[in-house]
Amino acid sequence: MKLRVLFTLFLAIALFFAGVTQDAKEIIRKVDAKMRGEESSQNTMTMKIVRPTWDRTVTFKSWSKGPEYSLVLILAPVKEKGQTFLKRDKDMWNWNPIINRMIKIPTSMLSQGWMGSDFTNDDLLNESSIVVDYHHKLIGEEIISERNCYKIELIPKEDAPVVWGKIYMWISKKEYLQLKVEYYDEDDFLIKTEIGSKIKDMDGRILPTYFELALKEKPGHKTILTIETIIFNKPITDSFFSQQNMRRVR
Q: What is the pTM of this model?
């Protein structure tokens, strides 16, 4: 009888923790789909890079289809206008019309800043799948920007092609909004924090449209990313994401 009770208790505990793990992954899956679109997304963004003595602004268009494909076109400033970046599966390229050169971006450059910003090539180009490449664990709940949020820990899977050693995400319970993210290196040191705000209706979805990314060890260094327009799930063919299209997309 005691063994049966202990077995039942053990089973209940195991099912509880399995449910928590599944819930954490499902939460991340929902927020990822909400930000990217279930099939595709097309958007225009403005990125302001702020430093203690200067700042500059980059405007770009981007198209994505699932985690496999993405294409980015620089619209401004003038000296960088027309540059494109392509990701197909695990391969990435940069096309520079000024020097008429196609450059393959090696995986060793994933951690480098994109266009001189505090967002890495992995953040904005490679877009490592936060659903597929990480283990997820619900570790608590907190209030962020007056919203009840899940706090979820993401630990990369072994041999996953990711930059970060650990990520914490705060996701609102009601609308699955990504309101705060902390990025840690492999030594468990906090590198940067991203805060999402200015929540608006974008193509029928309630989303944060303003993301401020600040570096912990570099006061006065930050990057502000603003979503100007976004369209979800408009059909895009796989052939759109090609080296040929990098040269002609507008």
A: 0.86
